[in-house]
Description:
It contains eleven helices and no strands. It is mainly α. The protein has a domain at 53-230: MetI-like (MetI-like fold, Orthogonal Bundle). The radius of gyration is 23 Å and the shape is globular. The two termini are 18 Å apart. The model has no long low-confidence stretch (mean pLDDT 83).
Amino acid sequence: MRRRANPLLTGYALLVYAFLFAPIVVLVVFSFNDSRRNFVWKGFTTEWYPSLLANDEVLDALGVTLRLAVVAVLVSTVLGTLLGLALARLRGRSRSGLETLLLVPMVTPEIVMGLSLLLFFLQLFDGRGGFGQLSIAHVTFCLSYVAITVRARAAGLPAHLEEAARDLGASAFEAFRLVTLPLVAPGIAAGAMLAFALSFDDYVVTTFNAGVGSSTLPLYIYGRIKFGVTPEINAISTIIVAVTALALLIAWRLGRLRSPAPG
């Protein structure tokens, strides 16, 4: 028997969604505002998007951000996957201690992590900022998220599947590649996407470790906001929202295609 929806719960859910998405809607609408001052609507225009794509500072910042995110995703995914699998198979008293240490970068305030990384590079390597320093910093805080995600996926896998593959003649690497890796692939993909989002969006840690020529898109946006929010900033944010929504739609469709049909 089909249950009727509670109108109070439905109304409350609509209010919550309106509260969450109303600022994004306003941001998107004002990216088409025909006024340099972004407080009063003057008319509709699309001139801010071509001018944005012709802005060399924005393109350079976007290039640095994407390259940094790719490096952080690749390194943290590989190391985090191995660490997550090791923690899922580890037994004994040391497991809880290692898992607690893994959570430290996730619960540490970003300003503390950014300052500690800056002092670390400054004291040991005389680092003055740069792409390499930023890459290591981003890998440091992305690693824990990937490892936790993969560990949660690997903890629920039956161990006898890999043992059966070994009994059938597969080597340790073949059992890992053909059995374990496909089973933990959803956790690896989720951790990689989370690492990309964290690296792309990070501002605090990047502020402490960025140098000349390594300004990212969040740094550029926050720097421009000091002089007032312009439709150009709204256009950048609108493009990011559109790309994110498209990625979520593709992931949702792929999940629907891979899921078994009802019945």
